[in-house]
Amino acid sequence: MKIRVFDNPADAGIYAASLTERVVETTPTPVLGLATGSTTPPLYDALVSMEQYGLDLSEAVTINLDEYIGLSANHEQSYHHFMNHHLFSRLRKAPKEIHIPDGTAADLNEECHRYDSIIRKNPIDLQILGIGKNGHIGFNEPDDLLVLNTHVVNLSSDTIQANSRFFDSVDEVPRQALTMGVQAILQAKKIVLMAFGTEKSDIIAKVVHSPVRTELPATILQLHRDVTFVLDRDSASKLDMNSLLLSRS
Ligand code: F6R
Q1: Of 70, 80, 81, 213, most Cβ neighbours within 10 A?
Q2: Ligand 1, pocket-test mutation among 36, 161, 173, 185, most atoms within 8 A of CB
Q3: Can you list the domains of the chain with their CATH numbers?
Q4: Separation of CA 135 and ligand 1 centre (Å)
């Protein structure tokens, strides 16, 4: 696991965008696994800027991690809307395929199967992740077990509370979501997890320093051979840098 710490989210976003660019430039049809939430906009801002200097995402396939159940694509808090607003509508040339789970599908199990077949056909080259304060990745919440495939998840009360900041009231936050499972995440060739702010400092320290356990879903990233944590000083503030340096030597 590599850890890169930046002065601020904007610089971290530029770094994550440059990792993305490297994948895009070295892969004929790059498949990018994308995330939403308040952490990713600095990455998307940087990708939009880099397009002016030659970055071309038009051959890319994008596959988003998750979507709320019950929110239509044009609902302001849907992840479809988020992605259009922060990335897709700002690009001169959109990715050639954009995939986001359909949270309004009549048959949600069928939607999960459909999504898994998209992932099977398009193995992910680079997976971008945020992290919940409870350690979730995608919406794989802390539990006794982790689900491998795309599935319907009941959001934890922590997540509902955390995400209520985007809604008028906590009652409006959907209680369920569709999320990619941990298998698709772990099968990505490269993973970049971004986290900013002191509110993420406890979970980042736990995920880096604790043993792998399903109550802290992001700890499974320790099993992956190419993971980079892209942090700002605040989210990195509780890491034990000495132990990290020792474990590297
Ligand atoms: C979003 C997602 C979530 C978020 C996480 C952090 O697509 O999969 O795991 O990355 O909840 O959210 P923020 O960035 O809002 O703190």
Answers
A1: 80
A2: 36
A3: 2-248 (3.40.50.1360)
A4: 10
Token pair listed for 104 = 């309004």
**Which pLDDT value is given to residue 8?**
98
Give the integer Cα–Cα distance in Å for 192 and 230. Answer: 7
113's tokens: 């199967």
SS3 92: coil
Q: Is there an atom of ligand 1 within 6 Å of 42 CB?
A: no
CA 58–ligand 1 middle distance (angstroms)? 25
Structure tokens at 221: 């990233």
- How is the chain split among helix, strand and coil, in percent rounded to 5? 40, 20, 40
Active-site positions read: 66, 134, 136, 141
Which residues 6+ apart lie within 8 Å of 219 measured at CB?
135, 206, 207, 210, 211, 212, 213
- Answer yes or no: is the C-beta of 163 below 6 A from any ligand 1 atom: no
Mutate to test the pocket of ligand 1, among 34, 44, 62, 65 (most ligand atoms within 8 A of CB): 65
**Mean pLDDT, 10 residues at a time, the chain of 249 residues:** 97 98 97 98 98 97 98 96 98 98 98 98 98 98 97 95 93 96 98 98 98 97 98 97 71
Q: What is the pTM of this model?
A: 0.97
Q: What is the CA(130)–ligand 1 centre distance, in A? A: 5
- Spatial distance between the Cα atoms of 205 and 91, rounded to a whole number of angstroms: 35
Q: Is the CB of 36 under 6 A from ligand 1?
A: yes
